Amino acid sequence: QLQLVESGGGSVQPGGSLRLSCAASGFTLEHYAIGWFRQAPGAEREGVSCISASGGTTNYADSVKGRITLSRDNAKNTVYLHMNSLKPEDTAVYYCAVPRLFRLCGLSPKDFRSWGQGTQVTVSS
Predict the structure, then answer these.
(1) d(CA 72, CA 61)
(2) Which residue, 28, 89, 42, 36, is CA-closest to 61?
(3) By the 8 A CB rule, do 72 and 99 touch?
(4) Residue 4: beta bridge partners?
(5) Across the strands, what pairs with 51?
(6) pLDDT at residue 26, rounded to an integer
(7) pLDDT in tens, 34-60
(8) Span between the terminal Cα atoms of the chain, in Å
(9) What are the beta bridge partners of residue 83?
(10) How are beta strands 58-60 and 46-51 bridged, if at all?
């Protein structure tokens, strides 16, 4: 019953911005850390960022450092991934997930569960 739904993906030009959403149902998102991951065609799933339950701690992968911001709207039970200065290499299916261990906030996919269906991000001219 713990379910996450990603949305907000689409096609954007290089240098553009996009905001992805991770909406939760079956649990109160404000009590959980949320990790964002992505998987490009032919590549393994990789961690992008993770925001703590309080929102006070956010971890970023080196590949996206300085270009993304995570935030959460507890009233909407949603976590957002703001991406700017997008590059073609950012093209991937983006997923959100909750950690297997409460309050864990890392970037390793194996430490997360309850993956959403993903949302496609395509960066091209």
Answers:
(1) 19
(2) 36
(3) no
(4) 24
(5) 34, 58
(6) 87
(7) 999 999 999 999 999 999 988 777 888
(8) 40
(9) 18, 68
(10) antiparallel
Calculate the average pLDDT of the chain: 93
Q: What is the DSSP letter of 53?
A: S
Q: Cα 84 to the chain's mean position, in Å?
A: 14
Q: Give 8-39 pLDDT, tens digit per residue.
A: 999 999 999 999 999 999 889 888 999 999 99
For 6-39, give the DSSP string.
Answer: EE--EEE-TT--EEEEEEEESS-GGGS-EEEEEE
Name beta bridge partners: 31: none
Backbone torsions φ then ψ of 18, nearest 5 degrees: -155, 145
Give dist(CA 47, CA 116) in Å, integer: 14
Give me the amino acid identity at 61.
Answer: A
pLDDT for the residue 122: 98
The amino acid occupying position 34 is: I
Distance, C-alpha 81 to centroid of its chain: 6
